[in-house]
Amino acid sequence: MLDYRRHDINGSPVWAKLHQHQRATRHMHMRELFQLDPQRFGRFSLEVDGLLLDYSKNRMTERTFELLFELAETVNLRGWMESMRRGERINVSEDRAVLHTALRLPADAVLEVDGVDLVPQVHAVLQRLRAFCERVRSGEWRGYTGLPVKDVVNLGIGGSDLGPLVVDEALGPYAHPGLTVHFVSNVDGQHIARTLEKLDPRTTLFIVASKSFTTPETLLNAQAARQWFLQAATEADIARHFVAVSTNADAVKAFGIDPENMFGFWDWVGGRYSVWSAIGLPVMLAVGFKCFSEFLAGGHAMDRHFFSAPFERNMPVILALIGVWYNTFYGAHTHAIMPYDHGLRRLPAHIQQLDMESNGKRVGRFGERLDFKTGPVIWGEEGVNSQHAFFQLLHQGTRLVPCDFIIPMNSHYRVDHQHAVLVANCLAQTEALMRGKAEAEVMAELSDLPGDRLDMLLPQKLFPGNQPSNTLALDKLTPHALGMLMALYEHKVFVQGVIWGINSFDQWGVEYGKQLAQRILPELSSEGALAHDSSTNGLIAHFRSRHEY
Ligand code: F6P
What is the mean predicted confidence (pLDDT) over 48-71? Predict the structure, then answer.
């Protein structure tokens, strides 16, 4: 059963011990930790089904982990994990279960929630998706002129865009050569206009992807797609070119999409956790159902590990606790994600939504104020491009920036020895960030310089190091490995939410901006008086005077 006590973890003895431990160890340099313990990598690394996590390059000792595991016990993490797995309504503000893990269960599993086994429902939708994908991929599904589908356009935003977009790009090597998937999310008309100008309505299939089917950005893009399509075809042809993915069958019908062409999912799947559901349809079309099933199996492998491994050997728990250490006890503001894989270049954006929409909260799950730092700003960019852009600040700036480096050991593309160069760069960065470059090393390099130049250059060539990082090494970016990686981050975010006492599954904070936009929209085209602050009034007036109708 859920623990309904107020979250007062910052009043607990272990919280105080962690602060005290941070003060006592904050001057320690990782370089020395490695010198003192030649086995540090072995002690602080972990492999699960071919996914290696090296977490040895952190400002942490055995004692740090002991205290963090005690923290996890204190918040009853195991109990919360079980509550999630069993389908208890841990999303308390929306009174919903949180069961994206159920989407990854194999067909022979059983998960009874309120007396109903959810697995057959999940697999019934998967089978419908499978049949649809096979028809489209084989060319049996024909457009209104009898031609097969060549382009698929996913119209969705947030979780209905980012998850499938990342997976589609990452699994590019597995994609159907005759099908191209496009993602349109932005309400900025250029996104849909520039996508459609390359396409042929006779061979284009649209997926309107929206959990709620009320998101204005998506519905406007769907309207624009429909109008574009109807310039060439008729209403009767829509059924062959528009399908929907949603939990809201009535709204789908009202929009004019045949319920036969709708693939459903459930309110116990959060938007940012929904790529494993029918929201993954664009990916299924691109890579095929078998490949998508391997992605689901990878997610399930991580779930099995997460729900069963002891905390000391539990990858999501360890990753989460490391993050808590830096966010809450070091006060680090940000966390960077650096995938050294071009196919994973949008992964930072997906994790940004996953983490910041989940744990970007200042009150606990029962409304209590949280007097400590919670979710970090997540950012990042693909390596090695990021090295030539912002790594300067990581190496010599003044901020603590914990980083995750993600690197496959093998590439799908054998372009000379370029993959080895990529790997060498990734490892070099984690080494440089950890060890830095000490004065004696710089002196040795500059020994020929005259004194005044040496004095000027020496401090500029020093690298303090001690910048923490985790490295996640995949054997290869397969659907299974990708599933494991994405589920790993989902569980990491959940564990951090439990430690901080946050409900990671609602997102009230995005509503306010939406409400204000509704108010401002009619004001842009009216002459009426404005009652905002002077900045907003001024900007609306500026638009009124400059916009060309
Ligand atoms: O931005 C808020 C949000 O609700 C996200 O959580 C969600 O992924 C996105 O909007 C899209 O929502 P929907 O799938 O309902 O269109």
Answer: 98
Last residue of a domain, one of 241, 268, 287: 287
Tell me the CA–centroid distance for residue 514 and ligand 1, in Å.
11
Residue 55: which residues within 8 A CB-CB, separation 6 or more?
Answer: 44, 45, 46, 318, 319, 322, 470
Q: What ipTM was assigned to the predicted interfaces of this complex?
A: 0.98
Asked if residue 332 is part of any domain, the answer here is yes
pLDDT, residue 252, reads 93
pTM of the model: 0.97
Residue 1, in any domain of the structure:
no
In a 13 Å sphere around the CA of 88, the CA atoms on its Cβ side amount to: 12
* pLDDT tens-digit series, residues 262-308: 999 999 999 999 999 999 999 999 999 999 999 999 999 999 999 99
Q: What percent of the chain has pLDDT over 90?
A: 95
Q: Whose CA is nearest to atom 2 of ligand 1?
A: 510
On whether both 310 and 282 belong to a single domain, the answer is no
Which of the following is catalytic: 357, 381, 382, 490? 357
Q: Does residue 297 sit in the same domain as residue 429?
A: yes
Same domain for 242 and 122 = yes
- Report how far ligand 1's centroid is from the alpha carbon of 69 (Å): 34
In the chain, how many domains are there? Answer: 3
Name every protein residue with a CB atom under 6 angstroms from any ligand 1 atom.
157-160, 210-212, 215, 218, 271-272, 357, 507, 510
Active site residue 412: no
Inter-residue contact 432 to 417 (CB < 8 Å): no
Confidence of residue 4 (pLDDT cuts 50, 70, 90): very low
The reply to whether 64 and 121 lie within a common domain is no
Domain that holds residue 239: 105-287
Distance 156 CA to ligand 1 centre (A): 8
For residue 29, report the distance from its CA to the centre of ligand 1, in Å: 43
**Residues 13-36: pLDDT tens digits?**
999 999 999 999 999 999 999 999
411 found inside a domain: yes
Which is it for strands 116-117 and 112-113: parallel, antiparallel or unpaired?
A: antiparallel
Give me the percent of the chain exceeding a pLDDT of 70.
99
Whether residue 82 lies in the annotated active site: no
Could you confirm whether 514 is annotated as catalytic? yes
Give domain status of residue 422, yes or no. yes
Which of 154, 155, 212, when mutated, tests ligand 1's pocket best, judged by the most ligand atoms within 8 Å of its CB? 212
Where helices occur in 288-379 by DSSP H, the ranges are: 289-308, 315-324, 347-359
- Whether 421 and 332 map to the same domain: the answer is yes
Tell me the Ramachandran region of residue 222: left when phi exceeds 0, alpha when psi lies from -120 to 50, beta otherwise: alpha
